[in-house]
Write a structure and sequence with these properties.
The chain is built from five helices and no strands. The longest helix is centred in the middle third of the chain and has 19 residues. The model has no long low-confidence stretch (mean pLDDT 88). It is globular, with a radius of gyration of 13 Å. It has one domain: Cyclin A, domain 1 (Orthogonal Bundle). By secondary structure, it is an all-alpha fold.
Length: 111
């Protein structure tokens, strides 16, 4: 993946998380994404030998995963996946890349 595209996606998600997440969220706040989700995803990718575009898509999903909490708690993964679908085309992501990001986000839904 073109690294600047990933950086744009990360910055977009980070800006929205910083400015739009409810301060009343004690667990799923900004620090959850920046200090738990993203580092754990990086560690997972490294441990599994995931490299290149695949790790960038995985990390994009990590950044967008909790964006759904800006709209509501119930179904936040589906909302985060929808936000990714709406935003990522404008940042230069292909349809296939966006579908991968969506699939990774949706895979985190707890039955």
């Amino acid at each position: 993946m073109d690294r600047p595209i990933f950086e744009k996606a990360k910055q977009y998600a980070l800006q929205r998380l910083e400015s739009e997440l409810s301060p009343g969220l004690f667990y799923h706040g900004l620090m959850h994404t920046t200090e738990d989700v993203v580092p754990a995803t990086e560690k997972f990718a490294e441990g599994e030998g995931i490299k290149g575009e695949s790790v960038d898509l995985l990390l994009t999903a990590a950044w967008f995963h909790d964006l759904g909490f800006i709209k509501g708690r119930t179904g936040h993964e589906v909302i985060g996946a929808r936000i990714a679908s709406e935003v990522l085309p404008g940042l230069g992501f292909s349809i296939e890349q966006i579908q991968t990001v969506r699939n990774v986000i949706i895979a985190t839904v707890i039955p």
